[in-house]
Amino acid sequence: TGLDPDLNPKIIIIDKNTGTDQSSSQWHEELHQFLQIKHGCKLSLVSLKAVFISNVSYLKLYQNLYGLSGTLGSRDEKQLLNELYNIDLIKIPTSKPKNFFEERPIISGYKEQWTNSIYDETKKKIIKDRSVLIICETVKHVDYISKCLVKRAMEDLQNDPSNIIYDSLKKPYVYKREHEEFTFGQGNELLNCGTVIIATNLAGRGTDIKLEQKLVEAGGLHVIVTFLPNNCRIEEQAYGSAA
């Protein structure tokens, strides 16, 4: 990771749901050590939790619980929370834009169709001065989609060299690991029109992407989730990145 002064290569688990590095975690049954041997890394000791407690038991140690969530889950999940912790759930009324889920999901049968759909949708939004956030399941998918989009943009640029929209498509902003700099969610850096961001779920959860006023007027940030998430919370958090 970018936080560790040790420059030797390591096997690091990346959480698919959040995109964050789990540098202190290991796969069990010596799988982690097997991968370390395979890739020529320094062997680490097999970890064993001597003391542990479940989330339910831990939270029941407290007399009062308070929490806030934008994506709490379904009715059944809320009922389960109520039964487990004996808590009341209060819903704060919110409203979504009319076009929040304006387009139906596109299910692709093969990789080329998948990447072509992503490219065509991105290009369509860039023409309208929108910016696009493309969220990928893994670092490997970020690299693959970036490569495919740049290749398509270069091909289209040869056929239409005067069209400036291909500048954004051939130079996407890539965000893969949490130690990498992501300027649009920090400080006073604003996301402007015609920017393409390709990222893991790091940019989909807990990242407030700030938009310039011109982009807001053009329709804001368009979010493309390139995979089917394990649950609806991940999807809703991704689509709410610029909220």
Describe this structure in words.
This protein has helices at residues 31-38, 55-59, 75-85, 111-127, 139-159, 165-170, 213-218, 232-239, and strands at residues 13-14, 21-22, 131-135, 173-175, 196-199, 221-225. By secondary structure, it is of the alpha/beta class. The chain folds into three domains: 1-51, no CATH class; 55-85, no CATH class; 111-242, P-loop containing nucleotide triphosphate hydrolases (Rossmann fold). Strands 4-5-3-6 form a four-stranded parallel beta sheet, with helices on both faces. Strand 1 and strand 2 (21-22) form a beta hairpin. Helix 4 (111-127) crosses helix 5. The chain is globular, with a radius of gyration of 21 Å. The mean pLDDT is 84. GO terms for molecular function: ATP binding. This is SecA family profile domain-containing protein. Keywords: Protein transport, Translocation, Transport. Residues 1-243 form the SecA family profile domain.
Task: Show the helix and strand layout.
Elements (H helix, E strand, L loop, with lengths): L12 E2 L6 E2 L8 H8 L16 H5 L15 H11 L25 H17 L3 E5 L3 H21 L5 H6 L2 E3 L20 E4 L13 H6 L2 E5 L6 H8 L4
Parallel strand pairs: 3-5, 3-6, 4-5
Antiparallel strand pairs: 1-2
Helix pairs in contact: 4-5
Shape: globular
Q: How much of the polypeptide forms β-strand, as a percent range? A: 5-15%
Please state the CA-atom Rg, rounded to the nearest Å.
Answer: 21 Å
- The stretches of 5 or more residues where confidence is low (pLDDT under 50) are none
Main sheet: strand order: 4-5-3-6
Distance between the termini: 29 Å
Highest-level CATH class of the largest domain: Alpha Beta
Order of helices and strands: EEHHHHEHHEEHEH
CATH topology of the largest domain: Rossmann fold
